[in-house]
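In the previous chapter we treated chains in isolation. Here, by contrast, the input contains two separate entities that must be folded as one system, with a combined length of 938 residues.
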Amino acid sequence: MTVERAVLRVYRYNPERDEKPYYREYEVPVDKAQTLLDALFYIQENLDPTLGFRFFCRAAVCGSCAVKVNGISRLACKTPFKNLVERANGKPITVEPLNFLKPIKDLVVDHDQPFESLKKLQTWCEPKEPIPEKEYRIPPEEVKQYERPTNCILCFACYGSCEAVMDDPKYAGPYAFSRVYRYVLDSRVKEEHKREMVKNAMDVGDIWSCVQCQKCIYVCPKGVRPAEDIQNVRGIAAEYGFKDYPGVKKLQHFVDWIYATGQINRLSLPEEVYGVDPTPLINKFKERGAEVWEVPKPLPGLLEFRDLYLEVMKEKKPHLDIDFHHVRKIDKRVEEVFNADVCTKITERFEEQREDFFTRFWKKLSEFFGTK
Amino acid sequence: MLEYDILIVGAGGAGLYAALWASQNPNLKVGVMTKVYPVRSHTGAAEGGINAALANVAEDSPEKHAFDTVKGSDYLADQDAVEIMTKMGPEIIYDIEHRGVPFSRLPDGRIAQRPFGGASFPRTCYAADRTGLVILHTLYDQTLKQGVEFLNEWFLLNVIHNGERVLGVTAWDIRNGGVHFIKAKAVILATGGHARMYWNRTSNALGNTGDGTAAVFRAGLPLKDMEFVQFHPTGLRKTGILITEGARGEGGYLINKDGERFMKKYAPEKMELAPRDIVARSIEREILEGRGCGENGDYICLDLRHLGEKKLMERLPQTVEHARVYEGVDPVKEPIPIRPTAHYSMGGIDTDKYGQTEIKGLYAAGEAACISVHGANRLGGNSLLDILVFGKITAEHAAEYVVGVEHLPTEGGEYVKREEEFISSLMDKEPKEKLADLRREMGDVMASKVGIFREEKPMVEALEQIRELKERAKSGLAVTDRSKRFNLNLIQTLEFLNLLDLAEVTALCAIERKESRGAHYRLDYPNRDDENYLKHSIVRRREDGTLQHGWKEVVITKWQPQERKY
């Protein structure tokens, strides 16, 4: 019986002696390797002892062995070899180092920088005073909230797949913001330090550069969902009242306009976020005869609910800091344009169903912001 | 030349915690050297939990914890050290809790505790089944906060001392290549265990090769109780990867091919939660006597199905993942094939209860050390406690010690030269042997002859075979990759040589101990013999390379040995 063999096309580069990187192909018997890591060992033990790669626990918990397999970041020790071979369908399987990190040798890249980012973002616990004699009391539900981000093993698979890293070298990386989120959710951490971490996430880590492509979620070998954590940290930044960031302004625009009219205002968005005057754009549209809606028309029925929304927001989450002032200004414009009475009173009907409505509405809102 | 007041070698739980305490004094220059990156360390693989008598779930006390530990150790642990450890347990838990370890909680918000093998009360604090991971990462975050200096990806070569005081270490810079002497007034070895000597039959990481222990041994200092290697009852059949004791703590059953919960024959009261040595032997016996599962009858089943998917995903998510990835089995629907796997080195560097060796300024902590708090058998949940308690104690002791002494006048040139010559000799040799083959042979010899069941004749053979392997390695094992940068071939060869040294000591000690105690079980001497062997075994290497074996008294404070029944 012939043993099925697969071809691995492996990135090789030893800056000590190679002018530039190259690829070398190795044939690995499929039954000799349960995982991709086993296949790399097969090469090292039988074909080429000079192959450089990292490994340690071989059980998906130490985070050493993340590499790029056919373009996708994976833990070598957690990637069943047979599946790879089946999917490759006779073509070579390309194994390369993670993207965006300095090469050391072959599949080994420098992890110093992503570790250094954690230090810059200060992702650690500064305990809240007074420190109890025994343990802090923490409800099990709270621990559950940071269960996912604490699964992170810092393998940097997400970093090597990140669209934001590709564009913005200052961007700290998805894993780093999951770390921020984890400590911000922790009731043991001092409030000032939480603010510090969130501020660092923006100033040092460029958290607003994330384009929400969700690749980090897709590649994470431990089920962490950094893109979601990033959204949550952004929401928290707004809650904390950090206003001078384009991202926060954008969020504010979304909140204000959606509450006022049920939709965002594409024309005023650049102005509110980046201070760009929209007039030339509006004029250009008008010149060409396009219909320009300076104020989006509220959805039918929306305005009836609107005051109630705002009231709930304020009552249950005062620190969310809806800019009523701004919303009222929008109201005025809506009133002018549509000649409508937008300051609706709460009807008796809603008064009756208020409690029920509150509960449902609050649930929706907390899902959106991801906090309790 | 790199120079530190305190150099910590190893950045797992013991090393990181030592670093946090040593650097409390801002005037001390503290460095941590690790052959990987700190968060890669094997502490991260610890799953089940950490013991401390918090009494959050049931009445408990450090004294009861100490008794359970001593009994679990089959009375070989030094009771004064055990008392220190269990007494410090609660304060250590509170300290790491204040630093942010996300422990699982009781409904009232206090730290949850679960039952574990060999414990009389639910005493094991945990964070689902990734307790070690979150402790390691939380401590790492704290070292970033404290600005601890790391030498990442540096490999320990040798410990340098002058017969009285430690001078520092020699090390290989893995990333750039090259030997360095690192000068230090105090060195804390927190380099982990050496169960990789069982190569394919271990739960250990690939790098758990006893580098610190072997360096101490080469430096002529004593190793203690090296015959005691714990086999964890539940390793995955194919890879030895660990399934946590928590799986049985949560109510998992061990089943033989007849579907029988066979532990009722061996430990009728504690059943699956008897101490690890007893459960491991019971499983092995079932297999040897033909009641194993599968075509070849070479494994036993761990059945978790009755726990239900919800509980499994909540309490044992990593277990579920491991079974799915490495065994292709879904524990929600099928039992997991397991067999015992070499897991923990009770033996190691001989130290006193403060982690001090014979050489001033040289300390050991964690699995590398044999203090001894685990004696002949470690209880589940005691290793994470051990590494933190003695990480702290050694750090505080060292921090006090270094304040009173000056650096010794040496530039270390001669040590560097010696290492360079040795490494060149490895590279200049004509390659006649393959590292992978020798390593596999070592593992097979150790697993089959110095494993769970032991007997004079096979062990004597094993010792011979290990010595032959050493000869073969000496004459024919060459490092064929001559490059400097990230030379794995060199590192793996050095690691293998470390393991070989330690395997020889393990086999010798196992032969010399003619009794059964804890993890050391001899078919030819099935009973414990307190009259002759209630002693620590001590081995050191003479100048000519031969081994000198001797004994050392066990410290007994409160608990006289009694029969160990569960």
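Chain A touches chain B through 64 residues (CB under 8 Å). Residues 212 and 255 of chain A are 19 Å apart (CA to CA). Compare these points with the single-chain example from earlier in the chapter.
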